[in-house]
Design a protein that fits this description.
- Chain B: Belongs to the binding-protein-dependent transport system permease family. HisMQ subfamily.
- The complex is a heterodimer.
- By secondary structure, chain A is α/β, with parallel strands linked by helices.
- Chain A has helices spanning 44-51, 73-82, 98-109, 114-127, 143-155, 173-188, 200-206, 224-229, 234-243; strands spanning 4-15, 18-29, 33-38, 59-64, 67-68, 83-86, 161-165, 192-196, 209-214, 217-222.
- In chain A, α3 packs across α4.
- Chain B is mainly alpha-helical.
- Chain B contains nine helices and no strands.
- Chain B has helices at 12-39, 49-81, 86-100, 104-118, 126-152, 155-163, 168-198, 210-221, 224-253.
- The longest helix of chain B has 33 residues, at 49-81.
- The chains are: A alpha/beta, B mainly alpha.
- The interface between A and B is medium-sized, with 29 and 22 residues.
Chain lengths: 245, 260
């Protein structure tokens, strides 16, 4: 049976006067694909960033596989290598080739020899359809291609869960599909995923669970069929209407 | 200049390596042949050719040693200046403020004459004193160049590296520093060329470098035009060669093909 892999208990975070997370409690099961939607500033990205501590939470607790997420560097680095993250702005390392972007973490953290790391990276690049671009630099690639490389880079550490922070929001419309296809493929392979996105089609089709964030709280949490068929309240109905459900 | 010599089908690193090697060979050649070359010149250059060659060598040596020290010091100070620890930031800011706000000549004189008074037993020979003063000086300017580079690396780069599980050391050495260094390279080159010329101030404490040689010969022979022109041209040759080397380094780091 699936078990709770990431557990959030009363997670709070404020930036100055503004409280972005107002006591969020939820669990993410192994193998589950969770899509988080909500207006910008509702705290959905902050929760994602709190899970791998790019944005430390003020109070409450987050555990990954039973281990508390804290500032302890050893534990944190181990947790981060097991939690892959994909960013809105791709954030590929501009001074490295595609191949080096993917092999950096395994070579440094696992001390994988370069040849073995390269072989493994080529398999990952093939999986995201980027094997022909291994020796190019990020600036030579389109946004969609960069994001696919970023997914391969995150997969290189063989993470147990993947976090996607609006992975298609910075892309031209015609490139959105190629990235969503890769994510769909990942989900089909059983990857645990938490995806912050505005792609309602993806949520309907791939998600096991859709979560709606509103003003720092989880306003609604339901399987996609139920979530979209009868929105829990007016705000959700209006939001789905606006982003084109 | 040298970069344009190589065939079009050569890769970036091949061109960069070829340029580096060519510039270094050329530099060694120029320095070793300078004495012989100058000996063919009319008086007062010809008879003093060996002195000029030695002076040029001292100038280059002085520049390389203090330049290397300045690079290390500048990196350290830039890191301290951007540190999370307040006291480190203050120390670095004070260092940069004091060095940039006082003349280099005063700093050289201070290290040579005042330091032994303040720290009894520390009697630096003239060359070492010049290295310390020049290194400290260029370090302060390098610190600001490198700090600008560090600040220009987008935050997302650090976040992506940390999210992969990389430790602080790897985040810095593999991701942040190479990109910061690339951005800082043009101002660092300017600083290095300025250092090559500023090393002439070491003549004030008796280091027998190029300017000192020229000045001694012109006052002994009463032929300022010939001697000082020779000095100036030698500096020009040295700075030209140094910029060839640094262009090659810049070219190597320029993976985006922006440099023309």
């Amino acid at each position: 049976m699936s078990k709770a892999y990431i557990v959030c208990r009363d997670v709070r975070k404020r930036f100055g006067e503004h409280e972005v997370l107002k006591g969020v409690s939820t669990e993410f099961q192994t193998g589950q694909v969770t899509v988080i939607i909500g207006a910008s500033g509702s705290g959905k990205s902050t929760l994602l960033r709190a899970i791998n501590r790019l944005e430390p939470h003020d109070s409450g607790s987050i555990t990954i596989d039973g281990v508390e997420v804290s500032d302890d560097q050893r534990t944190l680095q181990k947790q981060r290598s097991e939690v892959g993250m994909v960013f809105q702005q791709f954030n590929l390392f501009g001074h490295m080739s595609v191949l080096d972007n993917v092999t950096l973490a395994p070579r440094r953290i696992r001390r994988t020899p370069r040849t073995a790391a390269n072989e493994q990276a080529m398999l990952l690049l093939k999986r995201v359809g980027m094997q022909d671009h291994a020796h190019k630099y990020p600036w030579q690639l389109s946004g969609g291609q960069q994001q696919r490389v970023a997914i391969a880079r995150a997969l290189a550490m063989q993470p147990k869960v993947m976090l996607f922070d609006e992975p298609t929001s910075a892309l031209d419309p015609e490139m959105v599909q190629e990235v969503l296809d890769v994510m769909r493929e990942l989900a089909r392979g059983g990857m645990t995923m938490i995806v912050v996105t505005h792609e309602m089609g993806f949520a309907r089709e791939v998600a096991d669970r859709v979560m709606f964030f509103d003003q720092g709280c989880i306003a609604h949490d339901a399987p996609p069929a139920e979530f979209f068929a009868n929105p829990a309240n007016e705000r959700i109905r209006a939001f789905i209407g606006r982003v084109g459900g | 200049m040298l970069l344009a010599l190589w065939p079009d089908h050569w890769s970036r690193s091949q061109r960069s390596n070829a340029t580096l090697v060519a510039a270094l060979v050329l530099m060694a050649l120029v320095l070793s042949l300078l004495g012989q070359l100058l000996s063919f010149f009319p008086e007062p250059i010809g008879s003093n050719a060996a002195l000029f060659a030695d002076g040029a060598l001292t100038t280059l040596y002085l520049t390389l040693v203090s330049g290397a020290a300045g690079l290390v010091l500048g990196t350290g100070a830039a890191l301290a200046r951007t540190s999370r620890l307040a006291w480190l930031r203050y120390v670095a800011s004070f260092y940069i403020w004091a060095i940039r706000g006082t003349p280099l000549l005063v700093q050289i004189l201070f290290v040579y004459f005042a330091l032994p008074v303040l720290v009894p037993g520390l009697n630096l020979p003239d060359f070492a004193a010049a290295v310390v003063a020049l290194g400290l000086n260029v370090g302060a300017y390098n610190a600001e160049a490198i700090r600008a580079g560090l600040l220009a690396v987008p935050r997302g780069q650090t976040e992506a590296a940390r999210a992969l599980g990389l430790g602080h050391g790897h985040v810095f050495l593999d991701v942040v520093f190479p990109q910061a260094f690339k951005i800082a390279l043009p101002p660092l080159v300017s600083n290095f060329v300025a250092l090559l010329k500023d090393s002439s101030l070491a003549y004030a404490i008796g280091v027998v470098e190029l300017t000192n040689v020229g000045n001694r010969i012109q006052s002994a022979t009463f032929q300022p035009v010939a001697t000082l022109t020779t000095v100036a041209i030698t500096y020009l040759i040295l700075t030209t060669l140094v910029t060839q080397v640094t262009h090659a380094v810049e070219y190597r780091f320029d993976v985006e093909g922006r440099a023309k």
